[in-house]
Amino acid sequence: MADVNRGNRPLSPHLQVYRLPLAAITSIMTRITGHALVAGIVLIVWWLVAAVTSPGAFAWADWVLRSWLGFLVLTGSMWALWYHLLAGIRHLFYDAGYGMTIEASHKSSQALIAGSVGLAVLTLIVFFAF
């Protein structure tokens, strides 16, 4: 057998060398946000169940929901909902055969990120303004 030094070479593709395209990152984030939406749903369902259980349970659940941690979880869930919705719309275009080039997928990935952040900020403005 040949004397080959295999211990000094990185495996390919290696994440320290290979950079994921933006379309791949947004695709992974779509899956992550889909799973992260469960946290907000569990929190809201807990709040609703506590509302029909007893005044003490509701007071405790309402306090958690109105705390800074509850606000962060609900705000993150709201952003995840916008992101997941826009990614689903983009996927419908992909299914129809539109936006499949590298340039178009990169632009749609940028629009997905900007749109989700913009809609989340707009939702917070509308929520706190009224």
UniProtKB/TrEMBL annotation:
Entry's Gene Ontology cellular component terms: membrane
CDD domains: SQR_TypeC_SdhC
Entry cofactors: heme
Gene Ontology terms: biological process: tricarboxylic acid cycle
Membrane topology, as annotated: Multi-pass membrane protein
Subcellular location: Membrane
GO-annotated molecular function: electron transfer activity; metal ion binding
Residues spanning the membrane: 36-61, 67-89, 110-129
Key words, A-Z: Heme, Iron, Membrane, Metal-binding, Transmembrane, Transmembrane helix
Principal subcellular localisation of the protein: membrane
Assembly behavior: Part of an enzyme complex containing four subunits: a flavoprotein, an iron-sulfur protein, plus two membrane-anchoring proteins, SdhC and SdhD. The complex can form homotrimers.
Its biological purpose: Membrane-anchoring subunit of succinate dehydrogenase (SDH).
Family: Belongs to the cytochrome b560 family.
The protein's name in its UniProt record: Succinate dehydrogenase cytochrome b556 subunit
Organism the protein comes from: Paracoccus halophilus
